[in-house]
Amino acid sequence: MPTFKDLKIWQEALRLMLEVHNLCKRLPREERFQLIDQAMRSSSSVPDNISEGYTAYYYKDKIHRFYDARKESGETQNHILKMEKKDYIDAKTAARLFEDYQRLIRGINGYINYLKRKRGDKR
Length: 123
Description:
Elements: H1 8-25, H2 32-55, H3 59-85, H4 91-119
């Protein structure tokens, strides 16, 4: 039986979360209660919400969790841009991660549309 671990979007979200967490380990200690905590929480929320959405019983609950994953992806993009602007990461790394999250957001959108079609939404 398939699980959320089989979803490409969950696999990518987990990979990106681990990369963001590794970047956070190198940030200055004074960012501990701001940028580090926020970036780690938002990046962790993406695969968490995908797994919750996949295992939810009702379509409405499933879709809501994938919307949350998409929002957390956007928040993580913002934290990546802040890391770049504060000169904690280089522009190339920031651009690559930002684009990786953009692809993930497109994948999440695709899965939301799949769920809506499956439940018979006309929206």
